[in-house]
Amino acid sequence: MSTIVFGFDDSMAAAGRLGALLKLTAFQVETRRFPDRECLVRMPAPARTAIFYRSLNDPDGKIVELLLAASAARDQGAERVVLIAPYLAYMRQDRAFHPGEAVSQRVIGRLIADHFDALLTVDPHLHRIANLSEAVPGIPAISLSAAPLLASLIDRSGHPVIIGPDGESRQWTQSIAAPLGLDMLVASKERSGDRYVSLSLPEADRVRGRQVILVDDMISSGRTLIEAARLLRAAGALSVEAMVTHCLATAADLALMRAEGIERISSTDSVNGPTSTACLAPLLSQALQEHVLI
Question: Are strands 80-84 and 239-247 parallel, antiparallel or unpaired?
Answer without folding.
Answer: unpaired
